[in-house]
């Protein structure tokens, strides 16, 4: 198992390398001169050039990349062009709230999604199924930011029950994670339903019934676990969607997380911050998929992990 | 002389699709004696598998339902039992093995767990007792290293081994009746020979009855005491295995037996039955075999023949004999 | 040819009406009541989009500084916005924009993705690896960010929104088609065509592509919903259509400042987006039930 | 020699399996040693259990797969080393029929399109000319014009297989490779198709490479047969000789395992122990030694050679024959 | 097989651990927020003031700060030699007195004695020198390019006297001495990396903690040299969503919110617990018109635009009725402001002017701006207004970086693609140079400045240069009067309006002021 993980991590490295190059190229490809933005609208050409020199933006791109990567390997994410603060400092207070946010979103979405999906499948073409599926389809059809705005209006402004934003205390996570998870919840519910329906048609479910097992045992012990396998894959893939969605949700809820930092930094062409944030996102995504793969092998004995 | 273990009377089963009912079984009649191997033969779509599912009442998740008829098993009518009572029977007194051992075992559950499930439910053994029982069953069906196999997953076993596991599972509560639905169709010939041999041996040892459902006349000839031939949801002929192969009465049985190429038999041309099996939603009027029958008479296209005893222990559903006996 | 045992058992076939895939599809699709209603809704939307300039009660661009942010009333059924423009008229015009943006981007993405996916799945090998690895990399960036980047590079405007939404749809289409291709490739009739010496082009076009069509149709329908959402998210972040455009996302974005004071400005376009996306998703679901053999169970 | 339509020599095919970047590659020997020939107008059958490589052999001959080693001559021309672009001639003279009549016909094409596909690929005939040919061939396989406008899935298995045969026949091929053509069919239909195949052979002088696991069917249709086990032909010869006087223990066991449709002929069988080994790691020496009731020490170490037996064209590979 | 089970357990443990970390963290925070006491009415004097602002703080480095909010926080902690009063005019702070030489090149400051930094260091001329030298050396600091790079030498004749000589005249220098806050020389020498994170100054408050993106806290410095009673602790919170800020003020979660979103003013104005203040600012909104390009090289076209736009409607529609029309090229709060006769809306006259210029049917043009919702709103307004005189305007809202690239990427006026730019400008009320030179001087064409109107008037150039080279205030006033008159008539802009800044304060809070520049001054904040 350990060997497998090491192997997988080794496989990740080249991907991260490619991602780092791509994101580097990508941010330098976007028009916009950070030196100009740092210097201000009223700055003279000389001022701008001074700033550019000072920030090392006059070096050729490959040189900038190498120095960035060199610093990165020493654990130094660089210094923000906009704030002059170390990027790691800017991340430290924003990273965990973002992680919690995605995590809460993922968790409620998974639990509720599985529940709705399973109920829908078991009561196929009966009212619980219809209700469940209407909920699910609505969930993916709602624009995230709109849902967020409405939730703020209802729960924060009208009812005053929950804070409108920030990351202070569990309460402030409720609305953003609700908004963020809605889409995933729907996806999971739909996949669980169809996967479970497919599983319920299989021969081994019939075998289970032929053994004289209770229907609940058949569904929970035999069917559910098998139908989880595709659901896990989907959930993993959707995580990328979550990261993307967090950008919008964090904006709506003025949530101090990585997504908003990224948007702000893009606006300011704060290269070191964008670069590191993108890398972090990619790594997060890759790690989640690694976890999914491991989970997958736990669920599916056919995927043997050689130790 | 012999006691009837299972008696199926006028069994009718229907499926609903788009609010339309399609009858697949059109009144099936047959019985199984204690300690007997009964073969149920017929081509695909004739309803033989559905007959077995009807007996087990395994309709969950489908729209199938028994709309008429009785199934007497050990004096109780299975049609009238509650779901709970039925569950108590399934796996305990009536067990079943299926065609495809690859898909009939749960891929994510260890063999041991799957085997002990019916043991724990029906025999009320605790975990370790059940495990021991399971290992004993695996030994019985000729699996080497049974104590290791219980901790393995189905995909780690070969097809033959899996079918052995299925048999062990079916036999674990010592059932009176084993329904084997095409148990060897998915297996290679040499493995089929092993499994058939095993089933024969177990049947003799345990003195149980087997309802063997197959399309392979060779398997029937090898295994069965008596044979029921089905066509389009009905029994067309019932006879002892010797009678049937030596002197088939129904034109369908005749055609079927004649169309099988037999080893060592030199024929330039095989006999065959013309046409195709009719679609269940679009059954011909009268005798369902009439459109394909060489000996069809006008009445055959009009009216369905009854199933009549034509000799000792022989039944046949054909106007040829009905007219004869009249 | 007397020796051949001829059997023209026409009866079993001729009793059924002649089979036509379109009729069959129609017959099954009509049974999907929800999806059917949803498609009627979408057809209406398309009609509204086509007739928009004729049915809009007011000029959707004309401001009226004396009637700012009026709640829904008899004259303005959906109220007015922050310039006193009639929201209903803007909504009607917006149908045209939102639908055409999403249709265009989805179809472009579909065409490109399908070509890539077909090639990737059919030829396999290094081509497959390159295409799939690149889509992996694309996937590892949050898709909205990708769109933001593209718009940042290309500049704002509806055309660039279309390009952005197209680009981030390509990998999904490529993956879907690749999967379907791999599956279709396993069909014996593909092998049969190969054994007859059919060229790759013919096999891909005649035997493999048609197999991917039904999953494509389903995906396209769902994707249109996603595209509407993506385009409006971009507009919401100020990167989409120019602000006077009555695009639904823009309406939402500019309206959000008035949520507390004139909530109809936000709620109305939000509902329009929601219902439209919902309709497309419901149609997709219905199509899946009709077209996807996997979920067909009787 | 000119009478030989197909000659296969020492055919080998191995597949490489890899699980990922860092895994060692594994090789599967799907076909390790196959040699035989088919005369014009004759049927040669390859028989064996699943995984023995008989279908792979068929695919190699039709060049759906590239042989790793060995040579294939069709009508005197070597095709094993030719590129796809050079195979036009061969693609016309060799046609295939497949096991699953459901999967081998494109469900989205009308029957006439399916049958005309080889014509579309290889000829420049006009639509009406193609149509004419299609109707002719439909007649031959026992279908009518009426069927040509329909889709394949509207037909029953037997009818579909007829369509498949019509498609193979339309180019007037010299050799048809039939991969388990009847094993998916019900017995009553199976016999119709077998009869049709035999009739066509008589009429057009086609040769068949008939691949099947069903010994009874094989006995009925073949002139010569080859018995395969784990990628190699272990015994081959004229049908009558092999069936009446099998020499390889595997052939014997196989023949004895077939259930006989006659209850009076129930007999003691040779039951082989164990399962068929995986081609991923085939046993050493004679690949059959793990299951052979007569295995000797030498069988574990040495591969037996192919030997000519008393009767003409009867070959077998077994150490027992040396005793 | 045990291995598999082991993994399941491990996974479970990991999940639980993350959960627990998450939860425990939350609990802590929830407790602390409950303990803040704002929610429970207490009779005791409150000790913590929460200030909700609209944006994140960027940096605490006073020499490198461009944003208002960071500035507001800093000004409670740090002080400069000079400072600004409520009207934005220059006053003495750390300097007891100062003088400027006739040639406007030498600045001499006399410093207050006995002042200590928060870290115990003494404030003296040496400390000032260390600060100024830091700015002079590091070219990436904002203040470097704003005057300090012009310093020729710094002399410290005595411990509390400092003399600064410039290479060339630079009239905003006094303002710069107000902006350049002095931080402890120890931190400059020993911990320069910490300056943007936790500055050490001489102000009334000292730095507490800063959780990026969440809050920043400052605490009362009890050894402050200045006078006054003030609250013990102030917490600044960035709350970008307008509605949320208002909600915080209403619930008392925040004692001060800044700014109050204009569309929400109505919601809070009636509340007796809340006071709403409106302050005229130096923030001028305008559309700069590329005077170098056809058809805008004709002043008639530009004047026509000015006549076409209804400034009152602008304030009503775009600014929620807040603000005043821009009736000069600088805001009324800026020094030397001279009111001009505003262009009142007159469509007929506008059409007439267009006709005279040769465009009776109008023409097509485009307007650029960033993606702020306010900007987009303003651009739409311009579009609607110009439509009345037949001019079709296409709106191009660009993301800030792209926009600046498009504008400053043009190396010569010929390269410029810009036609109209919707933008705003603000400078210190005391600094008229910066409110004019970068915008109207011909040396300031992009990329060398923000003269995006490519306004080129040699006479105006001359006046500006002259005003910059002297220290005579009366003369300066005269010169700037002429400049305003000339430029306003030439109409290189569409003059729109000057913002009013709105901030909300709970009734029990006093001493909170907003300067015209937009800086929030809380150093004298207290509860009543």
Automatic annotation (TrEMBL), chain A:
<comment type="subunit">
    <text>The complex is composed of two ATP-binding proteins (NikD and NikE), two transmembrane proteins (NikB and NikC) and a solute-binding protein (NikA).</text>
</comment>
<dbReference type="InterPro" id="IPR000515">
    <property type="entry name" value="MetI-like"/>
</dbReference>
<keyword id="KW-0812">Transmembrane</keyword>
<comment type="function">
    <text>Part of the ABC transporter complex GsiABCD involved in glutathione import. Probably responsible for the translocation of the substrate across the membrane.</text>
</comment>
<keyword id="KW-1133">Transmembrane helix</keyword>
<dbReference type="GO" id="GO:0005886">
    <property type="term" value="C:plasma membrane"/>
</dbReference>
<feature type="transmembrane region" description="Helical">
    <location>
        <begin position="130"/>
        <end position="152"/>
    </location>
</feature>
<dbReference type="Pfam" id="PF00528">
    <property type="entry name" value="BPD_transp_1"/>
</dbReference>
<dbReference type="GO" id="GO:0015099">
    <property type="term" value="F:nickel cation transmembrane transporter activity"/>
</dbReference>
<keyword id="KW-0406">Ion transport</keyword>
<feature type="transmembrane region" description="Helical">
    <location>
        <begin position="172"/>
        <end position="191"/>
    </location>
</feature>
<feature type="transmembrane region" description="Helical">
    <location>
        <begin position="12"/>
        <end position="30"/>
    </location>
</feature>
From TrEMBL, chain B:
<keyword id="KW-1003">Cell membrane</keyword>
<dbReference type="InterPro" id="IPR027417">
    <property type="entry name" value="P-loop_NTPase"/>
</dbReference>
<dbReference type="Pfam" id="PF00005">
    <property type="entry name" value="ABC_tran"/>
</dbReference>
<keyword id="KW-0813">Transport</keyword>
<dbReference type="InterPro" id="IPR003439">
    <property type="entry name" value="ABC_transporter-like_ATP-bd"/>
</dbReference>
<dbReference type="InterPro" id="IPR050388">
    <property type="entry name" value="ABC_Ni/Peptide_Import"/>
</dbReference>
<dbReference type="GO" id="GO:0005524">
    <property type="term" value="F:ATP binding"/>
</dbReference>
<dbReference type="InterPro" id="IPR003593">
    <property type="entry name" value="AAA+_ATPase"/>
</dbReference>
<dbReference type="GO" id="GO:0005886">
    <property type="term" value="C:plasma membrane"/>
</dbReference>
<dbReference type="GO" id="GO:0015833">
    <property type="term" value="P:peptide transport"/>
</dbReference>
<dbReference type="Pfam" id="PF08352">
    <property type="entry name" value="oligo_HPY"/>
</dbReference>
<dbReference type="InterPro" id="IPR013563">
    <property type="entry name" value="Oligopep_ABC_C"/>
</dbReference>
Automatic annotation (TrEMBL), chain D:
<comment type="similarity">
    <text>Belongs to the ABC transporter superfamily.</text>
</comment>
<dbReference type="InterPro" id="IPR027417">
    <property type="entry name" value="P-loop_NTPase"/>
</dbReference>
<dbReference type="InterPro" id="IPR013563">
    <property type="entry name" value="Oligopep_ABC_C"/>
</dbReference>
<dbReference type="InterPro" id="IPR017871">
    <property type="entry name" value="ABC_transporter-like_CS"/>
</dbReference>
<dbReference type="GO" id="GO:0055085">
    <property type="term" value="P:transmembrane transport"/>
</dbReference>
<dbReference type="Pfam" id="PF08352">
    <property type="entry name" value="oligo_HPY"/>
</dbReference>
<keyword id="KW-0067">ATP-binding</keyword>
<dbReference type="InterPro" id="IPR050319">
    <property type="entry name" value="ABC_transp_ATP-bind"/>
</dbReference>
<dbReference type="Pfam" id="PF00005">
    <property type="entry name" value="ABC_tran"/>
</dbReference>
<dbReference type="GO" id="GO:0005524">
    <property type="term" value="F:ATP binding"/>
</dbReference>
<protein>
    <submittedName>
        <fullName>Peptide ABC transporter ATPase</fullName>
    </submittedName>
</protein>
<keyword id="KW-0813">Transport</keyword>
TrEMBL record, chain E:
<dbReference type="GO" id="GO:0030288">
    <property type="term" value="C:outer membrane-bounded periplasmic space"/>
</dbReference>
<feature type="signal peptide">
    <location>
        <begin position="1"/>
        <end position="24"/>
    </location>
</feature>
<dbReference type="GO" id="GO:0042938">
    <property type="term" value="P:dipeptide transport"/>
</dbReference>
<feature type="region of interest" description="Disordered">
    <location>
        <begin position="27"/>
        <end position="46"/>
    </location>
</feature>
<comment type="function">
    <text>Part of the ABC transporter complex GsiABCD involved in glutathione import. Binds glutathione.</text>
</comment>
<protein>
    <recommendedName>
        <fullName>Glutathione-binding protein GsiB</fullName>
    </recommendedName>
</protein>
<dbReference type="Pfam" id="PF00496">
    <property type="entry name" value="SBP_bac_5"/>
</dbReference>
<comment type="similarity">
    <text>Belongs to the bacterial solute-binding protein 5 family.</text>
</comment>
<feature type="domain" description="Solute-binding protein family 5">
    <location>
        <begin position="90"/>
        <end position="443"/>
    </location>
</feature>
<keyword id="KW-0813">Transport</keyword>
<dbReference type="GO" id="GO:1904680">
    <property type="term" value="F:peptide transmembrane transporter activity"/>
</dbReference>
<dbReference type="InterPro" id="IPR000914">
    <property type="entry name" value="SBP_5_dom"/>
</dbReference>
